[in-house]
Write a structure and sequence with these properties.
Length: about 250
């Protein structure tokens, strides 16, 4: 019987490869498993891949209540430092809140490019999030909507917390402000990917794109997938586009 504190299947992973590294960053209340298929694909293309576990995730929900947005960014920083021990060039690859962190990393750290998928921006404008800490005394969590994944098998096997802790959602709101400040200062190539069928509206990607001042930026749109595009029916397209982006950046530099 295992005594590990991490959810079974939610462990971080590391696949050694070339001197080009990909840091896989999962979403809010999610686990490294969200990007494992993508990480395995990128490893087959030759890259070194690290799938990190963000602070407070993939253990028990009470752990997420105690963390702050800085803890999530430190998790990303740790992953970059881990890759840097063997890699000369690094790309961040993030889903949902992981996309926010991927873009913030693009402004803060010496990396070569960033991929942000299904990334929230406008939806975290709810004024109540300014009072998430006191509100959490009365409403400890926020119920999740049903999964919008078309891949029903992936939806059934998706590993995450069942609700959004109110206090932690307030930290996500703070992270959005950090992202808004970072976007105009990003100088490296950026790839945004978003599905038109995502329950998180396309305007999120459009707003992020509009605030980016880097000349090398692109939005790649999917037609059918739900929010977790790395596990849905168009995931092969997502994986190939990411590899194409990385190769293009490497060729140009």
């Amino acid at each position: 019987m295992s005594n590990q504190l991490t959810m079974i299947g939610g462990e971080p992973y590391y696949f050694p490869g070339s001197t080009v590294g990909c840091l896989m960053i999962h979403g809010f209340t999610g686990t490294p498993k969200e990007l494992r298929w993508m990480g395995e694909f990128l490893h087959k293309q030759g890259y070194t891949v690290a799938g990190i576990r963000l602070a407070g995730h993939a253990t028990q929900i009470s752990d997420l209540v105690r963390v702050h947005w800085q803890d999530w960014l430190i998790s990303v920083e740790d992953g970059i430092n881990l890759l840097r021990s063997n890699c000369k060039k690094i790309f961040t690859v993030g889903l949902s809140m992981g996309g926010m962190l991927s873009l913030i990393a693009a402004e803060r750290y010496e990396i070569q490019g960033a991929i942000a998928m299904s990334t929230p921006f406008s939806y975290v404008d709810d004024w109540r999030m300014n009072f998430a800490k006191p509100l959490s005394i009365f409403y400890s969590s926020i119920k999740k909507s049903p999964s919008d994944l078309l891949n029903k098998k992936a939806a059934a096997e998706h590993l995450d917390y069942p609700v959004y802790p109110t206090r932690a959602t307030g930290e996500l709101f703070k992270l959005k402000k950090i992202l808004a400040e970072a976007l105009p200062n990003i100088k490296i190539p950026i790839l945004l990917m978003h599905s038109k069928s995502d329950s998180l509206k396309l305007e999120n990607a459009e707003q992020i794109y509009g605030l980016l001042t880097t000349r090398d930026k692109e939005i790649y749109l999917l037609e059918k997938s739900g929010h977790v595009i790395t596990e849905d029916i168009e995931r092969s397209e997502v994986f190939k586009k990411a590899d194409e982006f990385i190769r293009k950046v490497l060729k140009s530099r």
